[in-house]
Design brief:
By secondary structure, this protein is α+β, with helices and mostly antiparallel strands. It folds into two domains: about 110 residues, Nuclear Transport Factor 2, Chain: A, CATH 3.10.450.50; about 110 residues, Nuclear Transport Factor 2, Chain: A (Roll). The protein contains four helices and ten strands; from the N terminus they run αβαββββαβαββββ. A hairpin with a 3-residue loop joins strand 3 and strand 4. The radius of gyration is 18 Å and the shape is globular. The termini are far apart.
């Protein structure tokens, strides 16, 4: 008898079905209860189907680079060509063995590497230090609260191992020096970034994802930040930033967050 797919495998297969058109993986979704937090899609399984129907046949490409799991929540990091090239994080909640809820955050894919030559998705893909999940989540939660929400920049160096820090944000170079230069350049250009609230922190081993809400360049946005932790310090960072449209433009009323 064929073994049942793990929840991580089900997520990979569901995302890949956007490319292949295979209807079988959609069976992982509970048709009676599918809560959609992508505000550009209607709620429920019908909303998912309507979105897929808008795709020109054969146009989609899906390369899921990383998949992790924190209890009933599976989170993935994917390189999409899906109504245009994008990098996205998706979160799926399982209940009774079926997917019942979905969140995501998508950013346009840059045409060139960042100043240090990294893409938005390259780097390690497998979780390690599975026994350190909770301490790593607490470390990242403290970092986000100290630095990104409250701006306690005097604590910044304590979270990193000097310039041994790999950055995948399209605009920022590696190391604390790269981060400092980027923040200085944004300030000079009058582009301010402010994290107002952290909605969720998820982790598996040395990978931790935070979901936050705030402001960037005068726009209301959702920040998804993925961190890799090494020896109790932040060693690597990936992210996506997505503008949240006005409520009048939403196709469902579940909101972008609602964890």
């Amino acid at each position: 008898m064929r073994a049942l797919a793990t929840q991580k495998q089900q997520v990979r297969q569901l995302l890949k079905s956007i490319e292949t058109g295979d209807p079988a993986p959609v069976g992982s979704i509970n048709p009676q209860k599918y809560i959609q937090h992508n505000v550009g899609a209607a709620d429920g399984l019908a909303g998912f189907g309507a979105l897929m129907a808008q795709l020109p046949k054969g146009s989609a490409r899906v390369n899921t680079v990383r998949v992790f799991q924190d209890h009933d929540l599976v989170f993935s990091h994917t390189d999409y060509n899906f109504f245009g090239t994008k990098i996205g994080f998706d979160i799926f909640r399982f209940e009774g063995g079926k997917i019942v809820e979905h969140w995501d955050n998508l950013q346009e894919k840059p045409t060139a590497p960042n100043p240090s030559g990294h893409s938005m998705t390259d780097g390690p893909t497998e979780a390690a230090d599975l026994d350190k999940t909770e301490p790593n989540k607490k470390l990242v939660a403290r970092f986000v609260d100290d630095i990104l929400v409250n701006g306690r920049m005097q604590k910044l160096a304590g979270y990193y191992d000097g310039d041994r820090y790999i950055q995948h944000n399209p605009q920022i170079a590696d190391g604390l020096s790269g981060l400092g230069k980027a923040l200085e350049a944004m300030a000079k250009a009058g582009v301010w970034m402010k994290y107002d609230r952290v909605h969720k922190t998820l982790g598996e081993g040395n990978f931790v994802l935070t979901v936050s809400e705030g402001q960037f360049g005068g726009k209301h946005v959702s920040f998804y930040d993925l961190f890799r932790v090494e020896h109790g310090r932040i060693a690597e960072h990936w992210d996506t930033i997505e503008e949240i449209p006005p409520r009048t433009q939403w196709k469902n009323q579940n909101g972008k967050f609602g964890f």
